[in-house]
Amino acid sequence: MSPIVPSLPPQLVQLGFDYVLAVAAGDDATAARLVPEVEQLPGLLSAIAERIVFPVTALSDDTEPCADSFVVDEVGVIYLMAISQWATHAPAAAAPGIACTIAHFVGQVLADAPKDVVPALRALRDAQVWLCSRV
């Protein structure tokens, strides 16, 4: 599990991903409905970001470490630290920006094409909710 963010119950993982999905899809009504709950949990979007970024950027035990892998690991850590600080110091204003940042990361790193961001986020949400419900 995550080295930075504690485990979350499935319903909070669902809430965080649903908010990011609403922002990514341009569903302003759903985002507006969910944002009060998200803003009351300032670390929630940081935890969602970590569930997406950490597995992609962290050094793996499966591969031989090299300079590039250390750089990717460190960039991931810096990215997550910035999101965490943003959420901590400006919780009311940070939620939409963090959601957009998460969606952008997914679009640039994990989705097959930029138009595939929403389906990729849905797949990540479903996998993470399932994982959390197994703990």
Q: Keywords for this structure?
A:
mainly alpha, 135 residues
**Broad shape:** globular
> Would you tell me the overall average pLDDT?
86
Report on the biggest sheet: none
Estimated structural class: mainly alpha
Put simply, the count of helices is 6
- Distance, first to last CA: 10 Å
> What is the CA-atom radius of gyration, in angstroms?
14 Å
Note poorly predicted spans.
none
Instruction: Please report which band the strand proportion falls in: under 5%, 5-15%, 15-25%, 25-35%, 35-45% or over 45%.
Output: under 5%
Helix content: over 70%
| Topology order in helix (H) and strand (E) letters | HHHHHH
Based on DSSP secondary structure assignment, what is the total number of beta strands?
0
Describe this structure in words.
- The chain is mostly helical.
- Helix content is 76%, strand content 0%.
- The protein is built from six helices and no strands.
- The protein has helices at residues 10-25, 28-39, 44-57, 67-89, 91-110, 117-134.
- The protein is globular.
- 32% of the residues are buried.
Question: What is the fold's blueprint, element by element?
Answer:
Layout: H1 10-25, H2 28-39, H3 44-57, H4 67-89, H5 91-110, H6 117-134
Helix pairs in contact: 1-2, 1-3, 1-5, 1-6, 3-4, 3-5, 4-5, 5-6
Write a compact overview of the structure shown.
This protein has helices at residues 10-25, 28-39, 44-57, 67-89, 91-110, 117-134. It is mainly alpha-helical.
